[in-house]
Amino acid sequence: MKFTVIFPCDDSIDLSYGLVFVPCPIWVDGEREILNLNPENPYYQLGSVRKLLAAEPVILRHPSQAGPACTVVIHPSGHGSWPDLQALVTDLKAEGFHVALSGEPA
User: For position 34, what pLDDT does the model report?
Assistant: First the structure.
């Protein structure tokens, strides 16, 4: 699996970031690599959302009026796993986001 995290904002566009596993987890924005989270470990590590927020402060500057929320889109292709998805959701919630899921796990 791989994931897209969409942060809605009240501006005209929402902010979206990919989490791909090649083979370690990497935050991407389109083709731009934002963070190679832990090159020595192929699994998602808690604290990776905080690293994304530090690297992309625009996420916190444009919150939705509904409060901090996001949607995680699950893509069946890729090297991520069910435990990676669970850790990502836990991590987002720990940062104060309300999380909705979309898509089907592999």
Answer: 95
